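Quick one: structure for this chain?
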Amino acid sequence: MILLIGWKNVWRNRTRSLVVIIAVMLGIFGGVMATGIMQGWIEQRIHDCIYKEVAHVQIHNPEYMYNEEIQHTITDYEKLANILDTLPEVVAWSPRVKLFVMAKTSWTASGFVLKGVDPEKEMQVSELYQDLAEGDFLEGEHRRPSIVIGSKAAENLKLLNYEITSEKLDSIDKEVFSAGLVEKLKTLNKKRFRNEKDFRDELKKVLAKREMNEYGDKLVKYFSFYRMGTSIQVTMQNKSGEIMNLVFKVRGVYKTFNSVFDAMNAYVDRDILNRYTDLAGNEVHEVAVITADNETGVKVADKLSAYLPEQDIMSWRKSSPEMAMYTDFSAVMAYIYVAIILFALAFGIINTMMMSVLERIKELGMLMAIGMNRKRVFGMIMTESVFLTLTGAVAGMIFSGVMVELFRRTGINVEMWSEGMEALGYASVIYPSVSLGNYMGITILVIITGVVSAIWPARKALKLNPVEALRTE
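Got it. Here's what it folds into:
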């Protein structure tokens, strides 16, 4: 009976109730979207960190972790390989040789970490081969050894050039770029530029300011290319400490969402690198392990530590502690966002319920006079508040669910901030993600908000004197 009366009382003043319901709905939508964006962002970063940078488990010689020198290779590699091959939780693993080298082209020099990998095994533990901007991932037979570098490293080595060619002008999107703009670009045909600044300066000379502002970034991206097949001279030490100068041909350029990683990591065939550095086939500096999921990776690291106490074994939580922190606190931060929004909405609910009580003083007094006890009056006011809040919450979560699913498929493009975001390792396209647990947690917070918001108005009703209330006009 109290529930039915409470529900009917919500709609006695439709306009006022709808205002509160819409406010709660928009508040829930804001909270859910903020949660989804943050969670989707973090999930993407963790995925990229594991499947492109650190793997679920990393194994090293303990000495290598203190002093990353070429001689500190993993001991008893055969034992390690046998354990990894027989452990059911291990999906794939890949051995790596890691050297700090100086790379030089005809135009400049830069330093990075050179990783010698087994291409087939590496493609089982890393998705890096899926992010190739040009070329391939150490595939095919070549007279000169191949190297795959990151897009930022290619830029640092002056391998990212810009050139307007007839072929690209013919295939340019005529729906985006007008015929007049294409005619202006033809004046720069066959001119090559070694850096973005020079290319932009030349574009400014032939394009109007409005055209440059509108199309400049698109033109820079469209007419850029990497100088594939360029020779890179790599200077390193071999196992005996001798300085070696090797020449590799650029066969691939990858681009991830982490520009720092792209600048600092290059890949070559491990057999070739071992041969030039006098390392044996079973001498490696790192073994990357992939498991079924993130939590299994932590358990496998613990298990391997027991089997191989002589090795330094780190799960992704230890090798990338900031990612572990994001995982642990993402849900907490999401609820904090929602709680702040609901705290602000609580004042609107309190105001609505207080007005409802003050308008019905005579009615409440009559109910008390004919026998309704104070406990039932208190329950009725509380029920109204909860119904009011829950109605807005259900509408908000349905609306939020539809919008989250829509953006999960299309993504939210924040490309204008891509440079800064990629410097931190985050994607410029965000795919929101909200779990069922998040929705259930938000529902509980909404109910708590409705109950807490009703306490003050309900206490106001309890203090009414039935005789005095009946005299109220």
